[in-house]
Specification:
The complex is a heterotrimer. Chain A is an alpha/beta fold. Chain A is built from 10 helices and 18 strands. A 7-stranded parallel beta sheet of chain A has the order 7-11-6-1-4-5-12, with helices on both faces. Chain B is mainly α. In chain B, the strands form 2 sheets. Chain B has a 5-stranded parallel beta sheet, sandwiched between helices. Chain B has a 4-stranded parallel beta sheet with strand order 7-6-8-9, with helices on both faces. Chain B is elongated. The chains are: A alpha/beta, B mainly alpha, C alpha/beta. Strand 18 (302-305) of chain A pairs parallel with strand 13 (238-239) of chain C, so a sheet runs across the interface.
Amino acid sequence: MARIFAYIVHKSGLADDSAAELAAAAAKIDPAASPTAILTGWGPELDAVSDALRASYAEVWKIANEKLAHPNAELVRKALVQVLPPGSIVLLPHDYFGIDLGPGLSIKLNSAFVSDVVAIEGVEGTCVKAVRQEFGGQVSTHVRCDLSTGAVVNVRPGAFKPLESAAVSGTVVDKSSEVSALEAKRRYLETIVAESGDVDITRQQILVSIGRGIQEKDNVAIAQELADAMGAAVSCSRPVVDAKWMEKSRQVGSSGQTVKPKVYLACGISGSFQHLAGLKGNPFIVAINKNPKAPIFQVADVGIVDDILEFLPELTAKVREVSGGKAIAARTGR
Amino acid sequence: MYWLVPGHVLFLIIPLLGAGLFSYIMAKRLVPLLHGAPDLRFDHVGARLRRILKFWLGQWKQPRYALAGLLHIVIFAGFLVLAVRSISLIMLGVSGHFVMPGFSGGVGRLYNVVKDYAATLIFLAVVIAAIRRAVFKPARYAVPAKYGKDHTAEAVFVLALIGTLMVSESLFEATQAAVQTQGATAERLLPLTLAWIFKNALISAQPSVLGSLHLAAYLAHELTFFAFLCFLPLGKHFHVITSLFNIYFAKLDRGALKPVRWGLAEEHLDQVKSFGVKTFEDFTWKHMLDFYSCADCGRCSDNCPANAVGRPLSPRFLTIKARQYSFGHYPLFGSAGNGRPLIAGIYSADEIWSCTTCGACEEECPLLVEYIDKIVDLRRGMIDDGNVPQTLQKPLKALEARGNPYGKPDKKRADWAKAADFQQTCKVKVLSGQNSAESLYFVDSITSYDDRIQSIGRASARILDHVGEDFGILGAAEKDSGNEVRRFGEEMLFMALRDQNAEAIKASGVKRIVTADPHAYNALKHDYKDLPPVEHISQLIAREVKAGQIKLNPVENEQDVYTYHDPCYLGRHNQVYDEPREVLDAIPGLKRVEMSRSRDRSFCCGGGGLMLFYEPKEDQRMGVVRVKMAADAGANVIVTACPFCMVNIEDAIKVAGLEGKMTAIDLTELVDRQMARGGNPQITQITGISARPAQSAESAQSA
Amino acid sequence: MEILVCVRRVPDTSENEIALTSAGDDIERDDLVYSVNEPDNYAVEEALQIVDRVGGTVTVATVGGDDDEEILRREMAMGAKQGVLISDEAFSGSDGRGIAAILRAYVQKNHYDLILTGVQAEDGGAQVGGMLAAMLDYPFASLVNSIEVLDAKLKISREVAGGNKEMNEIDLPCVLSIQTGINEPRYVGMKGIRQVASVEVPTFDASDLAIDTSAVGESAAKVGRVDYFLPALGKGAEILKGSREENIDKLIELVKSRGGLN
């Protein structure tokens, strides 16, 4: 089997959560092999991440180049093509960077490309069998990908649970010298940070969503506190917007936003079809409502019949206890 | 002699100049109408003349606002009476002893008496009106800042002109009488007329003074008359001239919408490059006449539910803005600048989308100004330009693909009738090749697909079954009736839906159609052609109750107070007010009250069809306003006969915080519940997730 | 500016309930409503707005069969000047790379300053745009949510984590994949659709585009779908019946397992 590489996305000296997930995915492809982490960047932050990765990867290939200080997929691709052995299997997280890098990289490496993989079932002959989703998560498919000339595999973030294996003591290999002449017809300018309060709920992985059951504007804070503790954002159904307790941009529904979170907490939401129409991608739906007959319980995965005004604060307290401060850091750092 | 000009010459020149100027102004005002789109209103002369009698001569709509109505009727009637006098006065200036043909002798004397009282009453009326406008300032005349300056000054000015006419005419009369009283035969003036008052005041004045006053009065009257005449076409008093025509040419068939272009057959619509009204000249000449004829009375906006809840729409200003544009773009002197498009030029898109087509404005307008056709035409224009709110694009696309705005699969359209426990009590035929029936129950989209509203479908089916009606439904072959599709301006999509439905209906061979959805009822009755007769289920139920086929059990909870909310498309648009009330009154022990706004003044619940998807900017929901009206009337149960009213009102009950204190029930659900079924008087109602009247311990959902 | 937008006809997920055939080898397609892939529609609207500003024309192209012509017409009703169908039996079963190769052949026979695709198709992998760019050696950017036209280049923003915008400059000609929400696509009414109903849509096959059929199609595909299956369905919510404290603990556990907590 060809060598497996995991491309590590990092920021401010910390590796993205996908680093551990890619290792787990690699293990699914080849349980015997030990994947190599590969990352690009510049300066002490790159060094810090490379160093930290030694605890989970046997080999860490570091490519330091001033032009790669900000990850520009066009330049990263050129660098990787110069460094990666032919026929390699490269794992990427299927996020805003992996979407940018993966397809073009597979062409330049002359290898196959599989996108947004949610599970890997193993290798048969020269093909790996993986699971993808289609139609907003309504159906799953098995795909087989021919690895014989290598492959780029984009892995859905959060789909693979990090392995609980013993710590490794890896080595950092500096591959910077193998990279030269990095020019591209696309140039990074700057990143404009979204205004706080300018939350795009359509890009959130977890949503604490409130409905009429929140009863008044002052109670919205209860949901916000839970969201902060969970690293989530607050969204809502139409009545909350009508009552002007939240902005229109927070509304989930056929006349609001379409959201595709992994987890959706529907708090005090009855579950009208207009609201549910905005919920895509087969999220894990938790419904909390004091009315046991609310339609939301038909579509939710888990239901709790309780008063959200009392339940949510207690949930928030417990979540804080469990996750410490990591959730907030994760939300602002990613 | 006046300065250098002999009297009769002067008094010939003034009328000639006045009439000449007036004719010039009228010719200029006619110009835009010549550029307008065609409007076929020259048929049905008899019917139109009858409307003149009712709405123009009879001032039929005026009394809806009692004081203003009375004042206007007095002024209007007075003006009609004084028309003869005015002409006589003008002619008198030219030929000193002019007498109107036919008004000599007894008729003339009688007329003189009548006219004096008429002038007096008009004077009183304008004084009261002026005080009312200038001091009390009724709310409906207010001009919100965004629409420009206040109109009170113009109103009071015109009232002053009228007052001047009355005073000068009476003074002319009085001075003459005063001279004659002093001398020989006196022309008797009757007591308490303006002329009589003036005469007595002037009785001891010098003849020379009286003579001067007499001439002054005449001059004043002459000048004021022609000033007034020429002022009429410059503002809101244009209606004095145009009202006769506006009412004559008013729409006869209330229910039908204006076609895309009058005189153009549907088959040729593909050739029309631009649909709808985008520029002022796209309006028909009659619509332009409407703009001229608006009297700025504000009654339309006063009754407009969109206006009441703070949406950007005010029908009065739809008209006033168009009139101002027309006056500005077709000026009396000089030439027009470049035209502006209507949307973004004088109207905002939201203003036009805000209308629920409830018809309250048209119901109120004393001049029969039409609004719905204009709104639909403006929407057609916006749709043509692709200028459609995002929230409406999804349901429109779903209607095209699936025949319903919810995007649910068409093959599931009849699933409401297949609910297990329902199917055991009532079998609903789906009319296909094998099945046929006498009647069609047209379900329409919301009743077919909405979980809560499906219970209206089931209740209706049970009622039809109970009275032995041989009926069926079209099932998956039924498409949305398209009532709102058409009224939102998607004419071609409407035609596609209509054609599919019409074909299915014809193929089914039914002889009658009944529906519980007033929007479907309206479309099938007015927008579709060549269909079997259509009726609303409330009419069927009322008939069957009268015939004894439906017996209704007494209400269980005698404490409940019921009120009936007239749906716009059943009530105002189709004048079905009595039948639902008859049904309610036939339920023993049912206490019913009327809301202050009922029947043709019913307040729209918020609208149906595509309106459910539109997100307006408003201060509160129409449904909430309506629910509060019900509470104010002392009711705790609102009965309605429209699925969209049900959705809006049940939602509003929650928003208004009246859950548990107020409930809503559809007429069919109520009848289904109270129907005596021989043997088992109290059948438990199988409803969707809805609130039940106060007796039940189950509370409504909390979220 | 000459803009090419690559579009795709897909089942409309918001209006369909996807079911599997009894054999499990495909989804039930009989009752499906198809429409243009939503992100592609945003891309067409963006292209139309660009030519409104700077002049030029918009061409929409799709790789498919006769059924796919309807979406080309729809986008033409929206304002695209030209629709192009690229069709050949040899293309069927192509993977993303195959489709990109086919599109590359078409692009090389014409001249386009800018090529747009939607970021992802309902049944696709967000890959064709990036692959096409690499094959043409054009620069590429994905998840684009704003475009400003400069001289021989564009200033674009990409949607990155946390709702932030990554501003980039990219030279023309280039390929961009467009994120939904970049604009508000105009409404296409029935009238518009009827008006383009009889406009000609040219079709190009493998020989027209000089495509080596051994490099595309099922046999050349490196990635293939084996089957469809339904993910495990719930039977309505599992109602937690413990005390509030117990429910909270259980809830946290469940949410964590779904990747909802760190």
